[in-house]
Design brief:
With 337 residues, this protein is α+β, with helices and mostly antiparallel strands. The protein has one domain (1-337): 3-Layer(aba) Sandwich (Peroxisomal Thiolase, Chain A, domain 1), CATH 3.40.47. The protein contains 11 helices and 14 strands. The protein has helices spanning 26-32, 37-44, 58-73, 97-105, 121-134, 158-161, 209-213, 223-244, 262-272, 283-286, 293-303; strands at residues 2-4, 9-18, 22-25, 48-51, 82-86, 111-115, 140-148, 166-176, 180-188, 196-197, 220-221, 254-257, 312-319, 323-330. The structure holds oxa(dethia)-CoA.
């Protein structure tokens, strides 16, 4: 799916983020499994990640991030028309964490649900919210992206356990008079589904004592195949959305790629020809937070003063599905339309 703005402006007018307090360093991981700070740094660029406390569920991390984004936008929860939570680690299978969060926020006039598109979930959810607002279904949306991946990692599998972390980001989307999203490109290749999956707990393989004993409730990944896929789609998707919007890579001021691995980001950055100082990187501090990755990086960029009105921001996510998605936005100063 690809398209550019139909003239109705919709922008991100508020940003929020929340990560658990507990920091897990590579050195700590090396006391738990056969790995080392050297290997993890060299192969991924990850130095540390955050790990949720046992009593924390996704909505507990989402709530402060959502509140911060609403405050930043100056929007009351009761004025939201839509709440989407992009995640693969909801509080429970149902009700949706979106509905739980909407209730906690007091967003009583909003439709609220979850969206599952792996690490691309945030980009899919933003595009969906954009479409609903641009189509006139509502005025204000809250999109939350985040995961508590530590709950679904096999802590005896060094090939996955060292890569991921927990965290949530949130954005408020509103109609604006000028600027905002210029376009999106989203895609899926389900034939690659077996490269990154969690088998059990669904209708194909319900939870049984055997499924637990066989460790089927944990993430399985073919790292090398996902790496190849990631380097390909980060480039092709970014180029496609830029062409669709009549822009070039030189027009991009801030590049926010999915934070999975510094090597993947460096490859994409070089192939695309984006100067390093335009790239936002925080995977060193958070690891791969799946749907949390892009909004957490946006929040970091904002804190650093990099998201100024008029700047062109390119975001690309990729992940399980296999899926990918890019969005191009002319940053606005929260100006409501
Ligand atoms: O959001 C999407 C989610 N996933 C990704 O983006 C992941 C994409 N893939 C990657 O980032 C990389 O493929 C990895 C970081 C997962 C792996 O890096 P790699 O350079 O592709 O390493 P490799 O899988 O080829 O493994 C190299 C060696 C292997 O040993 P042998 O067979 O060469 O003896 C692994 O067993 O490194 C070993 N290894 C480790 N060693 C120490 C694998 N994991 C670890 C580890 N510590 N944690």
């Amino acid at each position: 799916m690809i398209g550019s703005s139909n003239g109705v402006g919709v922008s991100i007018t508020g940003l929020g983020a929340h990560v658990p307090e507990r920091v897990m360093t590579n050195d700590e991981l090396s006391t738990m499994m056969d790995t080392s700070d050297e290997w993890i740094m060299e192969r991924t660029g990850i130095r540390e990640r955050r790990i949720a406390a046992p009593e924390e569920a996704l909505s507990d991390l989402a709530l402060p991030a959502a509140k911060e984004s609403l405050e930043d936008a100056g929007v009351a929860a009761a004025d939201l028309d839509l709440v989407i939570v992009a995640t693969v680690t909801p509080d429970m299978a149902f009700p949706a964490t979106g509905a739980i969060l909407a209730d906690q926020l007091g967003a009583e006039n909003a439709a609220a649900y979850d969206l599952s598109a792996g690490c691309t979930g945030f980009m899919y959810a933003v595009a969906q919210a954009y479409g609903m607002l641009a189509g006139g279904l509502g005025q204000r949306a809250l999109v939350v992206g985040g995961d508590i991946l530590s709950r679904i990692l096999d802590w005896s599998d060094r090939s996955t356990a060292v890569l991921f972390g927990d965290g949530v980001g949130a954005v408020v989307l509103e109609r604006v008079a000028e600027g905002g999203f210029l376009g999106f490109e989203l895609g899926a290749d389900g034939s690659g589904g077996q490269q990154l999956y969690l088998l059990a707990g669904g209708s194909r393989t319900p939870a049984t004592a055997e499924s637990v004993a066989e460790r089927l409730h944990f993430v399985q990944m073919n790292g090398r195949e996902v790496f190849k896929f990631a380097t390909r789609v980060l480039v092709s998707s970014a180029e496609a959305v830029l062409a669709e919007c009549g822009r070039t890579i030189d027009d991009v001021d801030v590049y926010v790629p999915h934070q999975a691995n510094v090597r993947i980001i460096e490859y994409a950055t070089e192939k695309l020809g984006i100067p390093e100082d335009k790239v936002v990187i925080d995977v060193d501090r958070y690891g791969n937070t799946s749907s949390g990755s892009i909004p957490l990086a946006l929040a970091d960029a904002k804190r650093e003063g990099r998201l100024q009105p008029g700047r062109l921001v390119l975001m690309t996510g990729m992940g399980a599905g296999l899926t990918w998605g890019s969005g191009l936005i002319e940053w606005t100063d929260g100006g409501r339309g």
